[in-house]
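Appendix B, record 7
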Amino acid sequence: MIMKRIIFVVVLIIFLLNLSACVNVPDSYMVPWNGQNIIINTDNSTITYWHDTYKCELSDYGIPYELRICYPDGSFYWWQQDNNSGLGGWSDDYSPGVYLSGEVIREALETGFPVDRDERIIPCFLLLLLACMHIIAPVGMWACYFGLYRQGEPPDTELWGVRLIGVLIIMGTAAWFWDWF
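Structure tokens (predicted):
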């Protein structure tokens, strides 16, 4: 009976992690700016503001990324974003104030970026598996901690402590996975 519960919990955790890791990039979205909407079309790689349409080349939809915005007059703005820093610039023929600035367009694009959680799935799964072992089989986990040093049955308070460690692992894993801190 306990084995069926463990298998059910493991399958449920895998299912929930797979659902939460799906990245859904919208075809287009609007970002309000200065009383107007910046319309970002991810299918056509275009950005429309007022009556101007800009071509956008984006290396990846998320961080890190490389961005190049081509203006109607042929000038361009570029930006390279890493996890912690970014670097950007303009072409020589770029005229500030004629079109929407590259910084504003970059900020509008970043509002629609999904959070990339793919790299966190396996560590989160392993942490959740460890947490489930703490909650479902606290005696076994207690034996892993103290089995070599103590003989006999563990006290109830220590078993509740082991279960509490499992709950804390779940809370910490969820906070890390969904960027709550």
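Remarks on this record: Strands lie at 28-33, 36-41, 46-49, 52-58, 65-70, 76-81, 86-90. Helices lie at 2-20, 102-111, 121-136, 138-146, 156-177.
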